[in-house]
Amino acid sequence: MKTLADLRAIKEKAKQNMASREKTAKYRIIVSMGTCGIAAGARDTMSAIIDELNKRDIKDAIVTQTGCLGYCDQEPMIQISQASKPTITYGKVTSEIAREIINEHIVNDKVLTNYVFNLS
Amino acid sequence: MRELSLNILDIVTNSIEAEASRVIICIEELHRDNIFRIRIRDNGRGMSREIQKKVLDPFVTSRTTRPVGMGLSLLSQAARQAGGTVAIQSALGKGTTVTAEFKKNHLNRAPLGDIAGTVVNLIISNMDVHFYYLHQTDFGRFGFDSYWIFARMAEQDCSVYELVEPAKEHIKIKLSAIQSNG
Fold it and tell me: Quick check: bond before B58 cis, omega within 30?
């Protein structure tokens, strides 16, 4: 039977594990998860992203969530940000397209321009 | 929304916005009483009585980006179309409980859907929050909480992402054991 102190230690270790990954991550993948995103399938998009990162054994990327980006008809939307590079926003990202984006943008460092969302 | 598990994901986002550190998601499927109940309880900021009365209205929201908040009104609509109701109980500084009740066998009751996906997504996206998910049917009950994932991260020294599929599988197995055809 674990004591409260044991549980606190476990949680602290988990948080540190996550924090160190966040600090060293080269890529931040941000999934829009407002009501519009959720309704359009963002949960499944996020699952596909995580699954693809696991499959490809990609350890230098983290996945986070944000609220509605204001372009609800383009949901699900994801953003990929990298230090000293412009953040790329992709729109209408289904689970399949998310996997394509991980493979091209993250693995091959190639922006998939046909899925990129432009304000214009 | 297509599945009630997506409404749950949406509502729990409200709890996170309200700075909850603990969230309980309780699902009860009572065949005998024909009730399907979802209860989401948090220890966040809570709401005043005045706001509580109006909060199901999509134009009543704490959002600042735009004056519309659809989570509770979509849940309320989903409940109404399945012969059910949504009730809000809240106290400022204490927390909020959202209870959605549906007629279980109503033709228009949306399916629960991928609750495992919702619960695991919430845990890994909010590592500071303690989630407890309880599911009860006429055949039994089971619980799952954040520590299932935290403990394995500590034991196996692996990343949280590697535990996503095992956690979902675990929930699905426990769930099928308490469902009528499981």
Answer: no
